[in-house]
Design a protein that fits this description.
Blueprint (H helix, E strand, L loop, with lengths): L1 H36 L2 E8 L1 H12 L6 E5 L12 E8 L4 E9 L3 E2 L13 E5 L1 E4 L5 H15 L11 E3 L2 H8 L4 H18 L2
Parallel strand pairs: 1-3
Antiparallel strand pairs: 1-8, 2-6, 3-4, 4-7, 5-6
Length: 200
């Protein structure tokens, strides 16, 4: 009798382990499918008060550029070349998103001197569209507060590292059940670009 019970328990454990593995495989397949479906990508770039001011000063004196991001290394190859990037500007001193820039994943080598630290100016990405935090609507600012939490707090915070890093796909996938963060940012730019076109 005891042997039968032991066999039943072991069988249940094996089934449970197999179910767990299957669920995990399905879950990660869903994440990979979600990643493959993305037409736009959210990435992060880190600043302190000095580098953010240097960045803003450069943009202010360069009318053809609205946002620019420089880094010692190129963006990871997991993001397709020439794809659209929404760059979250992380101010690591205030623990807040300072703004969002729109650029293409197309690097220019040593094209501009933006920062006093020359190694930062190696790979350069720039664009013609930018949304400063102070120019966002109340609804947009509420979403930025969500990004503040995701980027700056918890064990998975994104304050470390240099250059432009991909925003965690798994986090975006989980959030999508409540709000499509990629789609929300895309709409932010779409609205402003439509207004710009109607005024020209």
């Amino acid at each position: 009798m005891l042997s039968k019970q032991n066999n039943t328990t072991m069988s249940s454990e094996v089934v449970s382990r197999e179910q767990y593995k299957r669920i995990r495989r399905e879950y990660f397949k869903e994440i990979n499918d979600y990643k493959s479906s993305l037409k736009h990508h959210i990435v992060t770039s880190r600043f302190n008060m000095q580098t953010l001011q240097e960045n803003r000063d450069f943009v202010e004196k360069t009318p053809t550029i609205k946002c620019i991001y420089c880094c010692p290394d190129p963006i990871a190859k997991t993001i397709p070349i020439d794809s659209v990037l929404f760059v979250l500007e992380m101010n690591n001193e205030t623990n807040k998103i300072a703004g969002i820039g729109l650029v293409r994943n197309h690097a220019f080598m040593h094209k501009y001197n933006v920062y006093s630290e020359r190694s930062y100016n190696r790979y350069i990405y720039y664009g013609k569209n930018h949304i400063a935090r102070e120019n966002m609507t109340e609804e947009e600012d509420r979403i930025m507060k969500v990004f503040d939490i995701l980027c700056f707090t918890g064990s998975k915070h994104m304050k470390r590292g240099q250059g432009i890093k991909s925003f965690p796909i798994e986090t975006l996938y989980k959030c999508k059940r409540t709000l499509d963060l990629v789609g929300f940012i895309a709409e932010m730019f779409k609205i402003r670009m439509s207004k710009k076109d109607s005024n020209t």
